Amino acid sequence: MKKPLPKVSLPSMVTTLPISKIKVKYRPFVIKEQKALLLAQESKDRDTILSTIVDVLKSCSDGDIDPDKVPAADLAYFFVQLRIASVGPEVKFTIGCSSCGTPNTINMQLTDITLECPPIVTDIKLTDTVGVTFRLPTMTDALVKDDNRDKSTYILYRLVETMYDEDSVYQKSDYTYEEFEEWLGMLNEQQLLRIEQYVNSIPELTHTLEFDCHQCKTKNRRLLEGLHSFFRFDVGA
User: Fold this and answer.
1) What is the pTM of this model?
2) Nearest to 209 by CA among 78, 117, 93
3) Mean pLDDT for the chain?
4) pLDDT at residue 66 above 80?
5) Helical ranges in the chain per DSSP H
6) Nearest to 73 by CA among 236, 195, 229
7) Sign of CA dihedral 48, 208, 206, 10
8) Section 206-231 average pLDDT
9) Could you give the C-alpha distances from 84 to 79, 81, 91, 190, in angstroms and in order?
10) Which residues 6+ apart lie within 8 Å of 129 measured at CB?
11) Helix, strand or coil for residue 55?
């Protein structure tokens, strides 16, 4: 009988997710997972990329990551930490100048990327007695598709947890999307603005790139936002 091939141990690391404060124990991704990420990147399909990333994050954390519960910004931060542990902190990619279009080679240090976590108010008062409570978006929300509904309204519907007045609390799960859409249409401009302010306050992984074009010397600033922006440059060769 053949002896089983020797097992190769992998280092184990721990990180704390900035928003949820969850401690996650993880290992670097292995070659088969790296190949899956590269294939997803080559597909250029956003849903394929996100679902592959989620699968790898779950695998490398032994299932401790729940994409249905962990905020999307936390998962983006975790992916950056995983990429640092697996391949290294430097990412090299090419980006065109905003003025002349000349490709410029950029070396970015992933260790420079941080996730800002200001206090998040999820209880939004619409009047003195009526309000809405929200949760933070997850990666699962980003993967939801429904071509028959307005995307922004449907995502908002998913993020609502309760609505309340001075007499009662109304669980969103008891109401259909159509009922929520009708209710939303009855709000005035100021009330809708308060909801929009909550949406705009949702934390997102961002990083500003600054470089001088080597051809025309124009100063460039590019804002990277969200997991997809960081993934599309490099998952390692």
Assistant:
1) 0.86
2) 93
3) 90
4) yes
5) 31-43, 46-60, 72-86, 139-143, 151-159, 177-184, 189-201, 226-231
6) 229
7) positive
8) 89
9) 9, 5, 9, 44
10) 165, 166
11) helix
With 0-12 / 13-18 / 19 or more C-beta atoms within 10 angstroms meaning exposed / middle / buried, residue 49 is buried
Task: List the beta bridge partners of residue 219.
Answer: 212
What does the block give as tokens for 76?
A: 């983006």
Instruction: For residue 221, give Cα distances in angstroms to 36, 96, 97, 112, 154.
Output: 31, 11, 9, 16, 33
Tokens matching residue 118: 């200001």
Task: Delimit the domains of the chain by residue range.
Answer: 13-113+205-231, 123-201
User: Cα separations (Å) of 90 from 17, 111, 178, 195?
Assistant: 21, 8, 47, 38
Q: Name residues whose C-beta falls within 8 Å of residue 136's C-beta, 6 or more positions apart in sequence.
A: 19, 71, 72, 73, 120, 122, 159, 202, 203
- CA–CA separation, 107 vs 186, rounded Å? 50
Buried b (16+ CB within 10 A) or exposed e, 154-178: bbbbbbbebbbeeeeeeebeeeebe
